[in-house]
Design goal:
heterodimer, B: alpha+beta, 5-stranded mixed sheet, globular
Chain lengths: 361, 308
């Protein structure tokens, strides 16, 4: 297997200044990988930060600008949508913790620059979930999963309810009530993380997770869930968050490490450190890496995880796939389910899904 | 840069692997396929387009292949891929060539926000462009095919690409889509037009394409000034009529016909206002193509376009 730095998209994001020497043939690969990985707008933002965007040849620049405009539009739309959600939930008085992309955008974090969105994720206290769902339905959001089994799957076992889509705007919201699924093998202390959330200045009842928890949440989702289609983008998010928070505060690394142990997420943080460093060259202090080893799996398992993650976390593109990429993605998909629920339930769930595919296909 | 003449000698196996690269100014498209109808279509419609070297940058990597589903034994299908992603459901195998053209439209409409894109046919004369904007079924492509058969230069039959900085239109001359009755109308109107095989029962009805005039292909790097915005409508037996249209209404209707007006925000608004401000705006009703041609021949270029 080739080294991670052979991934053109990774090199473009980490050694942005070298892009100036790229041939048009190189650009062909960079644009395609970044587009497949949903980081084209992020690359445009990096080039802009380096003052290089205007020096890029016209043909690739056109795609960078195009992606940048899409991301800019989505960032504006997120602001409007968040306000709609806030208003819809006003009567419930429930605190709303924004997660992932919406949080980065509303908190003005660098991770939001050039980030594209599919939906908005919020976290509410579990005991307020019924109120929140009712209020959303009253304001035009309807559940996208009508199947009784899907509804039960989400409600009994997951950390979120089925996605809801607004009937007029078509926007989708994911309402979470915990950081990790109820039946998960790795369970985060959601209450502690919810309690530490910080109010978003100027927005009544809106919160974002504390910096450490924001990283842990992002890592938890990337490394415990099985769908890694946006894996490279999510890894780049973690890289940007780490770099930003560490630059702003010397004690960040220590606090992050302590917090991971405290809320039970040392394993995903270990993976986050390992693969951001291996794939994106993120600089993590050696003393912190040494401490993070408490979250490491045993040696043989780690080798397997390397083989899987170093493939599945690449952009989903033919130019960085080898003959094991497909199976790696599939194994991580199965692992995602394995981590999420006890074995009997998992067998039942996958059988159900397989039969459903047969019927609809 | 070589030309695309010895196309028939090129092996389809090579096309399937390395692809064929076409320069459809302003874009470069690399196509991977081994489907004979697509290869024949490319040969028929695109033989005069420049072929850049294979190492060059391609804006879009597209492929057309038969999907490997069990369904293929029952009824063969074709699937369009954009660099490994599949944006649409497969279509019946016979529709492979039109699917290539439609898929390419999709690629452009979704990835070229550097331009304000309006769903319109655009033709040019002496540097002045007429934007023919109308919903499908209003005879826009028929009128466009007729105009380019009588000396107008084809900029596009689908997409007005407007540069927000210069307000000029970038040509992307490609085959003109003809459907249903308009196929025979254009055959009759221009017997020398190159019109490809007819494909029946598509979601647009019976379709084919008319090859872009060679002159338009060779001048595909020459931008044009938007001089007229015209909303054409074919009306059976109607007298030909060109009526000035309110500029405010024109802005709204163009915005409705734009692929990315909302996405561009202020950039799109400014570009649209700029265009409508300098152009003459009309509603146009016609039933006979000859009448339409003579009305278009009398169009006077507005001052801003003459100055250029």
């Amino acid at each position: 297997m080739s080294g991670p730095m052979n991934v053109a998209a990774a090199k473009a994001l980490t050694c942005t200044e070298t892009l100036i020497d790229c041939s048009l043939g190189d650009w062909d690969i960079v644009i395609r990988q970044c587009r497949a990985a949903k980081v084209l707008a992020k690359l445009a933002a990096r080039l802009e930060d380096h003052g290089l965007l205007d020096l890029i040849p016209e043909a690739p620049r056109r795609h960078l600008i195009s992606a940048h405009l899409v991301a800019r539009r989505q960032n504006q739309a997120v602001e409007i949508e968040v306000e709609q959600i806030r208003k819809a939930l006003a009567r419930t008085q429930a605190p709303i913790v924004l997660l992932k992309g919406a949080a980065y955008a509303m908190a003005g974090l660098p991770a939001a620059r050039g980030r594209v969105f599919a939906d908005i994720d919020i976290l509410v206290p579990r005991e307020r979930l019924a109120d929140v769902e009712a209020a959303l339905m009253l304001h035009g959001w309807i559940s996208t999963h009508h199947d009784a089994y899907d509804q039960r799957y989400y409600r009994q076992w997951m950390h979120e309810i089925p996605p809801m889509q607004h009937i007029k705007r078509g926007t989708v919201i994911d309402v979470h009530h915990a950081i990790t699924p109820i039946t998960s093998r790795i369970r985060a202390d959601s209450k502690k993380m919810l309690a530490a959330a910080a109010p978003l200045p100027g927005h009544d009842r809106l919160f974002v997770l504390a910096p450490e928890d924001m990283v842990l949440h992002s890592a938890t989702h990337l490394f415990l869930e099985g769908e890694l289609d946006s894996g490279f983008r999510d890894l780049a998010d973690i890289d940007t968050l780490l770099t930003h928070f560490a630059a702003a505060d010397d004690s960040f690394w220590e606090r992050l490490m302590e917090r991971a142990v405290e809320v039970g997420l040392a394993r995903p943080l270990f993976y986050a450190f390992r693969y951001t460093e291996k794939i994106l060259g993120t600089r993590i202090p050696p003393r912190i890496q040494a401490k993070a080893a408490v979250g490491s799996p045993a040696r043989p398992l780690l080798s397997l995880m390397d083989a899987l993650f170093l493939r599945a976390l690449r952009p989903k593109h033919s130019t960085v796939a080898d003959r094991f990429t497909g199976i790696a993605r599939w194994m991580l998909y199965v692992r995602g389910h394995w981590l999420r629920m006890p074995l009997p339930l998992l067998v039942y769930h996958l059988a159900r899904k397989a039969l459903a595919v047969e019927q609809s296909g | 840069m070589s030309s695309f003449n010895s196309f028939d000698e090129t092996l389809s196996a090579q096309f399937s692997d390395k692809g064929v690269t076409l320069e459809l100014a302003p874009f470069v498209v690399r196509i991977y396929t081994d489907i004979p109808s697509v290869l024949a279509g490319l040969q028929l419609y695109y033989s005069e387009y420049p072929v850049p070297g294979s190492s060059a940058f391609a804006d879009f990597h597209v492929s057309l292949r038969r999907p490997r589903s069990a369904y293929r034994w029952f009824r063969p299908q074709v699937s369009f891929e954009f660099d490994g992603t599949v944006p649409f459901k497969p279509l019946p195998y016979e529709q492979a060539y039109p699917m290539f053209e439609w898929g390419l439209n999709w690629c452009i409409a979704n990835h070229c926000h550097r331009f304000l894109m309006i769903h319109a046919a655009v033709v040019e004369r002496e540097g002045c462009a007429a934007i023919l904007a109308a919903p499908p079924g209003s005879g826009k492509s028929t009128l466009c095919a007729a105009l380019v058969s009588r000396g107008w230069r084809l900029l596009s039959d689908e997409l007005a690409l407007i540069d927000p900085a210069t307000l000029r239109i970038t040509p992307i001359p490609r085959p003109i889509g003809l459907k249903n009755d308009s196929i025979e109308i254009i055959r009759h109107f221009n017997p020398s037009a190159v019109i490809g095989p007819v494909v029946k029962d598509t979601r647009k009805g019976t379709v084919t394409h008319m090859k872009a005039p060679v002159g338009s292909i060779l001048r595909s790097r020459e931008t044009a000034c938007p001089a007229w915005v015209i909303f054409p409508r074919y009306e059976r037996d109607a007298a030909v009529r060109l009526r000035p249209h309110s500029k405010a209404r024109t802005v709204v209707r163009l915005a409705e016909n734009s692929f990315n007006y909302t996405l561009l925000g202020a950039i799109g608004f400014d570009a649209l206002i700029g265009i409508v401000d300098q152009a003459e705006c009309y509603e146009f009703t016609y039933s006979k193509l000859d009448d339409a041609i003579s009305i278009f021949a009398d169009l006077k270029a507005p001052p801003l376009c003459q100055a250029r």
